[in-house]
Design brief:
With 311 residues, the chain is α/β, with parallel strands linked by helices. The chain has two domains: 157 residues, Rossmann fold, CATH 3.40.50.10740; 140 residues, 3-Layer(bba) Sandwich (Glucose Oxidase, domain 1), CATH 3.50.30.60. Helix content is 29%, strand content 23%. Helix 9 runs parallel beside helix 10.
């Protein structure tokens, strides 16, 4: 573990390490979970399931206390070297009152997830000073798609000895050119908006902001961006990297393309913006260290990570 500039960087993974698999949000499909577990095993890791990983309580994977107990148990267990969420969905916000930041800070370790897990990233980044990883999940990602490239980059990042990576997105589109340097922050747009007014509110000033979402009509995307704008969340942002915004479609053909929505919305801003990068619900997904410094080169469609987020 290291602590530079107030950020706690967890220890890297090594072959044979045990990694906890938990379901802090939605209910998990058993078949997808088993497929994803095999991916972790092929990487040389030993998955350890949380007690309630396959539980159900209405629309979430067990009661709030059960899901929180699984997460805290993995942080407290010294034999567990990392934690990978099984899937997103809904419910991460509900377990926050049952978490203990002091215990987490004393036992920092790799934590990976995306989508609804955005809320836990905000909590762990802001309240525990922990560098976390926005990346593929066991059932929701590795269990759903082959993700060959994502598997390799996931392993390079989390087994790394601390060096950075240069990630290029050939299919990305340049909305606004330029270069930017700052810590990575962000996640799912819906969850970033849901954080407003809470103690875990997104703090993107002087940072490169990651934004992705899925299955949203254009007017809702515009509305959520407007909410962030009115909350002052684009003031001081260094740059933005949008994900593929999978299945985000217009309600009417006259609405144009999503890039048209973005161009109009961000017309007044000068920071670089790259869209259609593999950071969300697509068939491939980068593993990115939230809280680590990166350089965005929009023209070259590059995101250069200055460090891997682990030691």
């Amino acid at each position: 573990m290291s602590n530079r500039k107030g950020r706690i960087r967890p220890a890297r993974l090594q072959p044979g390490d045990k990694v906890g698999v938990i379901s802090p949000a939605g209910v998990v499909d058993r078949d997808m979970l088993e497929k994803g577990l095999r991916v972790l095993e092929k990487m040389g890791l030993e998955p350890v399931l949380g007690r309630h990983v396959l539980s159900r309580h209405r629309f979430v994977a067990g009661t709030d206390r059960e899901r929180a107990e699984d997460l805290m148990g993995m942080f407290a267990d010294p034999s567990i070297r990392g934690i990978v969420c099984a899937r997103g969905g809904y419910g991460s916000n509900r377990i926050i009152p049952h978490l203990d930041a002091k215990v987490i800070r004393r036992n920092p370790k790799i934590f990976v997830g995306a989508s609804d897990i955005t809320f836990l990233h905000l909590y762990l980044n802001l309240k525990c000073s922990l560098v976390t990883f926005h990346g593929p999940m066991v059932a929701g990602s590795f269990g759903r798609n082959p993700m060959r490239q994502s598997q390799r980059q996931f392993a390079r990042m989390l087994f790394s000895e601390g060096g950075g990576q240069s990630l290029q997105a050939p299919k990305a589109r340049v909305l606004k050119p330029g270069h930017a340097k700052g810590e990575l922050a962000g996640g799912c747009l819906t969850l970033l908006c849901r954080s407003l007014g809470t103690p875990f509110e997104l703090q993107p000033r002087n940072k490169i902001l990651l934004i992705e979402d899925v299955n949203e009509p254009f007017y809702r995307i515009d509305g959520m961006l407007w909410q962030l704008k009115m909350a002052g969340k684009f003031e001081g942002v260094r740059g933005i990297v949008f994900g593929e915004m999978v299945n985000c479609r217009p309600s009417h053909k006259r609405e144009g393309k999503l890039d048209d929505v973005f161009k109009e919305f961000f017309e007044e801003y000068s920071f670089p913006i790259l869209v259609n990068c593999p950071i969300g619900h697509g068939r491939e997904m980068w593993t990115l260290p939230l809280g680590e410094t990166a350089v965005l080169d929009a023209e070259s469609k590059l995101l250069n990570l200055m460090g891997s987020g682990v030691v």
